[in-house]
Amino acid sequence: MSRFASQRRLAWDEVERVRLDERSRYGGRQALLEIDAGESLHFFSRYDLGMPPTEALDLVLEVRAARS
How many CB atoms are located within 10 Å of the residue 33 CB? Predict the structure, then answer.
């Protein structure tokens, strides 16, 4: 069991999917960066990332492609 807001390092081969999760909330839309690591899901907001999740998704996909 992990604690809320705990840190975990994932290797690229553990990451099955990275996508944008958009939901309606409080009358607006909220986007989260979702990282699917098989048995665990990790969600990051704009405040966690320090940038819009759409930009973070582009950056993660770019870095992942460069490492392949």
Answer: 24
